[in-house]
Amino acid sequence: MVTAEQAYLVGGFALMLLVAGWLARTGVLVPLEKAGKYASIDGLRGFAATFVFFHHAHIWLIYRQGGVWEEPASRSFALLGKAGVWVFFMITSFLFVGRLLDARAKGGFDWLRFFVSRFLRIAPLYYFVLAVMVLLVAVYVRPRGGMDTASDMLAYAKWIAFGVTGRPDFAEVDVLPLTAGVTWTLAYEWTFYLALPLCAFALSVRVNKALLAASAAVTLVLLYYNHSFGSFGAFFLGGLVAWLVRAGTLRGFATTRMASALCVGLIVLLVALPKGRPLLDLGLLFVFFWLVAQGCTVFGCFALRSVRYLGQISYSIYLTHGLLLYLLMSLRAGSAPTLHGHWLAACGLGVALVVSASVTYRLFERPFMRRVDWLTERLRRAGAAATPAPR
């Protein structure tokens, strides 16, 4: 039986699709990019980002009612967050392990360009969100005399480093509700990126010895701080799918209606299972992702223009929705939280989120992504100039 909250989720998602479809069709904020080699994965990314938003919208209802930030008791709403993040990790690993596999045949991998592209892809929007978060914290702590203590400076440093060694509070202010805690995943993303030279070595891709040693040392340190079984399991399975796709396994079956029906069945089974079985959850999600990576669009859903648009701005949706939820709930702080009032506001915020994410994508994502080759070449020239000529 469909609950009221699940009905609001479906309705809110439909509204977001309508807005995304209009923006994709008109190109009024950002043009929709052409479908790439893995267009179905682009669509899946759009679903994952919006589902994480609804996951945190549900948590905010719990938080307003009881003052505790905790995982939803509802299996479906808990999965929106957990499975959404695992899908992001699988996509990341699938794409970059796939590039390593392709580079093995070509004889090399451009590590400088890789790290430049990752930094310019993640950092600009992250630092914007961090600046807004610090501003909100400053408003809270202003009566206490500001944020100039040594502990606050250490907190700044850890946050600037993407929280890879922890995400502390500022001046004892709980920052979790400000961003919905979404930034924790970036620590895992960077752990994966910095461990990729080790993965390349395991796949027989040529890696500079100094880079390999640095990768091993940094990875060991980061694993000490970030060690979630489910998260690293998702990265491993995404890389495995990259290998399976290149092996051609399930290629013919994945584009059939039977494969789409199987994907729907896997999601229904995933929701129906009781909590506490992460291995089984990962396994079901792995098969689902494998089919999507091979081209399954789930009856065309992942090929829709509106869904691909959500996928294009998914990083902005993911990273900024916590701030918007916080601002909305702050405006509603004086009213008693009711289920229908909360979800009507959340659905309206979902529409605003699609528009605002398009703006942040245009301002903080697209311009910097277009500068990857330019910055890579500048750094390469600077490195060559600093290297002494052989005698």
Can you walk through the features of this model?
With 391 residues, this protein is an all-alpha fold. It has one domain (4-375). Helix content is 75%, strand content 0%. It contains 16 helices and no strands. It has helices spanning 4-26, 39-66, 75-106, 111-141, 150-160, 176-179, 184-202, 209-225, 229-247, 251-254, 257-272, 278-293, 305-312, 314-331, 339-369, 372-386. α2 crosses α15 (339-369), α4 packs across α16 (372-386) and α11 (257-272) packs antiparallel against α12 (278-293). The protein is globular.
**Number of discrete domains:** 1
Label the structural class.
mainly alpha
Poorly predicted ranges: none
Shape: globular
Q: What is the makeup of the main sheet?
A: none
Mean of the pLDDT scores? 91
Task: Estimate percent helicity.
Answer: over 70%
Number of helices: 16
* Radius of gyration from the alpha-carbon trace, in angstroms: 22 Å
Termini separation comes to: 78 Å
- Binned strand content: under 5%
Number of strands: 0
The SSE string, one letter per element, is HHHHHHHHHHHHHHHH
Brief summary of the model shown:
By secondary structure, the protein is mainly α. The protein is 75% helix and 0% strand.
